[in-house]
From TrEMBL:
Belongs to the HAD-like hydrolase superfamily. CbbY/CbbZ/Gph/YieH family. It holds the Pfam family HAD_2. Coiled coil: none annotated. This is Tyrosine-protein kinase PtkA.
Length: 235
């Protein structure tokens, strides 16, 4: 397994993800990759659970295991009321000003753009909520497109959201990477034929993510620059 900064260079001979073409586009998950939204997500979930279910301990740890999926899909999987979406979204908007960007992310994004690499977001959030958050953080203009799970027929782990990003970006899968912090991100990337990169700087379950054998593993945002704009610009 490649682990940039921990074992071998992803462009080195013998690396599993060998591509002849340089990286031309990057598709990002949002939560846990670009922004550290877990504290806000936890509070919004607790509030929604208290309002709609009203008893017992909110099963947030179970909810975390399904991150990357669309919120209504998670509710169905967990057997929770779909009515939780309303207060969850309300609280997520109300608390959005508390969501920080991970250290190094703005600089990494701007350098990728400066190198001519096209950027997209493919998130489990709804499109309007994702775009609102990125605009508030001053990052929205760095992306060619931001796609939410409500804007495709089949959300992650299906490949639809990544395929839609590829279409808008005009990028070939062989020149595109997808970076996420959840198993659903890796599955969506592979279904779309793009390299699957695991981001380990958030609160992701590292053991579970590594068990999916991602093409490349990154432990800080700046390492993505070596993958995309390093000496070889290939992976």
């Amino acid at each position: 397994m490649d682990s940039l900064g921990t074992s071998q260079d992803p462009a080195a001979p013998g690396a599993r993800a060998q591509r002849a073409e340089p990286v031309g586009a990057v598709v990002f998950d949002l939560d846990g990759v670009l922004v550290d939204s877990f504290a806000v997500m936890r509070e919004a979930f607790h509030t929604a659970y208290a309002e709609v279910v009203g008893h017992g301990e909110p099963p947030f740890e179970e909810y975390e295991r399904h991150l990357g999926r669309y919120f209504p899909d998670i509710m169905r999987i967990m057997g929770l009321p779909l009515e939780m979406e309303g207060p969850f979204v309300r609280e997520s908007y109300r608390l959005a000003h508390l969501v920080p960007v991970f250290d190094g992310v703005p600089e990494m994004l701007r350098e990728l753009r400066a190198q001519g690499i096209r950027l997209a977001v493919a998130t489990g959030k709804s499109g309007p909520r994702a775009r609102s958050l990125l605009e508030q953080l001053g990052l929205l203009d760095l992306f060619t497109v931001v796609i939410g799970s409500d804007e495709v027929e089949r959300p992650k782990p299906a490949p639809d959201i990544v395929l839609k990003a590829l279409g808008v970006l005009g990028s070939d899968p062989s020149r595109t990477v997808m970076i996420g912090d959840a198993v659903t991100d890796l599955a969506s990337a592979r279904g779309a034929g793009v390299a699957a990169i695991a981001a380990l700087w958030g609160e992701s379950d590292e053991e579970t993510l590594l068990a999916e054998d991602p093409d490349i593993v990154l432990r800080k945002p700046s390492e993505l620059l070596e993958v995309c704009v390093g000496a070889s610009r290939t992976f």
